[in-house]
Amino acid sequence: MKNTKLTKFQSNKVVEAVKIKQVLGNMRGGATIIPEGKKADEIVVSHNFMITHKPKIGDYFTKDANGVISVIEEKEFEANYTAVKKSAKAPKKEETQATEEPPVE
């Protein structure tokens, strides 16, 4: 691949992610990923996942819009992703309906 010119691509996809606090291996070669903070539950992953992604403390466990899960190294994730601000909640249905009185006969 010395002389191979590859086309450059830039991503702008949104992912869900948690920073990995701890990786606890199990007897079958899989693991339980403990996320930082208290918002996310523990994540149980398979032996195959461990071999493919090699999650480490500080990395980010991610899931994209298609449901594809992956691990992105801490430096790469923090250099390329910023938190998405939560959008304002849509008004309730009853708040969007007209409140006019019915015509009087």
Structure overview:
- The protein has 105 residues and is of the alpha+beta class.
- It has a domain at 15-80: OB fold (Dihydrolipoamide Acetyltransferase, E2P) (Beta Barrel), CATH 2.40.50.
- It is built from three helices and five strands; from the N terminus they run βββαββαα.
- The chain has helices at 47-53, 74-80, 93-96; strands at 15-25, 31-35, 43-45, 60-64, 69-72.
- The chain has a five-stranded antiparallel β-sheet.
- A hairpin with a 4-residue loop joins β4 and β5 (69-72).
- The termini are far apart.
- Mean pLDDT is 84; it is low at 95-105.
Distance between the termini: 84 Å
Note the total helix count: 3
What name does the CATH topology of the domain at 15-80 carry? Answer: OB fold (Dihydrolipoamide Acetyltransferase, E2P)
Order of helices and strands: EEEHEEHH
Output the structural class.
alpha+beta
Strand content: 25-35%
Biggest sheet descriptor: 5 strands, antiparallel
Biggest sheet, strands in spatial order?
A: 3-2-1-4-5
CATH class of the domain at 15-80: Mainly Beta
Let me know the average pLDDT: 84
In the predicted model, the low-confidence regions spanning at least 5 consecutive residues are 95-105
The whole-angstrom Rg is 22 Å
Q: Would you report the number of β strands? A: 5
Bulk shape? globular
Query: Which percent range fits the helix content?
Result: 10-25%
Any guess at the CATH architecture of the domain at 15-80? Beta Barrel
What attributes characterize this protein structure?
105 residues; alpha+beta; OB fold (Dihydrolipoamide Acetyltransferase, E2P); 5-stranded antiparallel sheet
